[in-house]
Amino acid sequence: RPQWAVTLAGDHDKIRPYEGSPTEPKRGIVKDKAMAYAFILTSEGLPMVAYNDYFIGPTADPNPPNDSVDDGWTGTPLTNEIDRLVDARRKYAGGATVYLSQANTNDLFIMKRTGSAQKPGCILVLNDNQSTVLSDTVNTGWANTNLVDFINTTNTVTTDGTGNASLSAPPRGYRVYVRQGDL
Questions:
Q1: How many CB atoms lie within 10 A of CB 49?
Q2: Which end of the chain is more exposed for a tag (fewer CB within 10 A), N or C?
Q3: Three-state SS for 175?
Q4: How far apart are CA 143 and CA 27, in angstroms?
Q5: Rounded CA separation 88/85 (Å)
Q6: For 150, which DSSP code?
Q7: DSSP, residue by residue, 38-70
Q8: How much is the CA Rg of the chain, to the nearest whole Å?
Q9: Which of 43, 50, 52 is nearest to 5 (CA)?
Q10: In 3-state terms, what secondary structure has residue 109?
Q11: DSSP H or E run through 83
Q12: In this predicted model, what pLDDT tens digit does every residue of 21-38 receive, in sequence order?
């Protein structure tokens, strides 16, 4: 029952800024944590946002006694990014999950939430490649439709008569596509 799974990108039990050896600190996800939040906040289940990611900083500080503020965390809080993803989840991420991408599955992941009576659905594109924009032509199931990246609405794509479109994401980034008419 994926709808009852509690998903998380990190929490205070898995990340310990004051524990672990110098060679193996418990630092959790140290880069691109926003990609993890994009996945859990658009997926089925009950996502949890860690307090430190939202309010303090997303990574454990490997040298906390050397900081001017010794709270054990470092980095820019993900507040604005998480807020946008929560908004996308509330408005669009409903229904079952369908995996759309079959190409370059080492670096590119494309999934669709098919929608429900309350939420019209969305498509998540994750790109794990370090330096290259990646794309794949997939069948979205939405024929002759303009798709807009909910996070960056200047990025649009049009599907063809059978629902196919080339969907992309920036290096080490993501896009959440929704139907333009659903905005």
A1: 21
A2: N
A3: strand
A4: 44
A5: 5
A6: S
A7: HHHHHSSSEEE--HIIIII-SEE-S-GGGSSS-
A8: 18
A9: 43
A10: strand
A11: helix 79-91
A12: 555 556 667 678 899 999
